Amino acid sequence: MSVDNQNRQFLFEAPLQGPAPAPAPTVKRRKFSPIVAGILAGVLSGAGGAAALSLVIAHPAPNNIIVNNADSVSWVTGVAAKALDSVVTISVGSTTSAGSGSGVFLTADGYILTNSHVVTLDGSTVDGKIQVKTANGRVYRATLIGTDPTNDLAVIKVSGTFTPIVFADSSKVNVGDSTVAIGAPLGLEETVTAGIISALNRTIQVASSEVPDGGLQLWNGTGAAPVSLRVIQTDAAINPGNSGGALLNNRGELIGINVAIATAGSSGGQAGSIGVGFSIPSNIAKRVAAELMKHGVASHALLGALVQDEVDRTNTAAFTSGAVVKELTPGGPAKRGGMQVGDVVVSFNGVAITASSDLVAAVRLEPAGAPATIVVLRDGVELTLEVTLGDAADAN
Known about the structure:
Blueprint: E1 9-12, H1 34-45, H2 49-58, H3 75-83, E2 87-93, E3 98-105, E4 111-114, H4 116-119, E5 129-133, E6 139-148, E7 153-157, E8 178-183, E9 191-206, E10 227-234, E11 246-248, E12 254-263, E13 277-281, H5 282-295, E14 301-302, E15 305-309, E16 323-328, H6 333-336, E17 344-348, E18 351-352, H7 356-364, E19 371-378, E20 381-388, E21 390-391
Antiparallel strand pairs: 1-12, 2-3, 2-5, 3-4, 4-7, 5-6, 6-7, 8-9, 8-11, 9-10, 10-13, 11-12, 12-13, 14-21, 15-16, 16-17, 17-18, 17-19, 19-20
Helix pairs in contact: 1-2, 1-3
């Protein structure tokens, strides 16, 4: 799906469509011993070997991280060892199509977070048969708990006892931080890739994974419009099949749920990683996941303003510089908060707004009723407005 006039495309990296790939050649997989596990924990924590060793032995959990030389393990090995048991591969099938993706355990009793487009097969079904494969090779049938197409997140459930992922505060992430992605790119389970955080507060648009009553939802000017997501950008290799998997910091904590990749091609097909991948920040994922587990749906804020890109109309090559208010909902949150037609929104809750899609993404990631600090330019004067956001469900 093209998002600008430079042939850039943002694509879901999953579901990976089509038949499952042929099995890889059989290899002998050496699983690390408790002693090596202690070394890996020391890499993560910087603690002494004895303390780290006792921690790992007290919670044995076999996984498939292969260590051939314990003397040269890196922080990436440690991150993978810590998080692998919390990451799963997801397979979804319907009467007409199939796909695969990834997910992470939210709770010890089997709640799993993934992308909405994984479990709905890009918006084609809510009745797909879902299976989950864990790092120890066991396969479980999963039940769909709820989807949130607005933020492209979903929760499914399996029965058993598992290792939940540890969440980090994504608001503390810096550009340049080291990161690791774990998932099943191209159906290759338990794949670990590493990189850095390339950018923060990036806004992208992806196809909606909303499933209408009539079946497959395609954007053709009359169906569901693409959704705007505010994401973390990383150069850790992400490919089709990584969707819903983990983006981790150097302590093995979740900072994002992988959701999309960029491709420089214009043919419309899925492409491999070019070092531009995107993840939904963990703070947003955590809030949405909690609502989906509790209610089966997630709430979204509403501003009550129709906006478009603010550009220099005298320069056809100009960059956008904000979101200009074209219309206000009578009695809506923006109107009540003092916003006026013609205002140019340049900041929302401390994050710069350079285009209308930035504002849409920023508003919809907030829960209904949340407070917001909005900075606008009005007749060249900068004003700060305090707005209590509404509930997007009221507009439906």
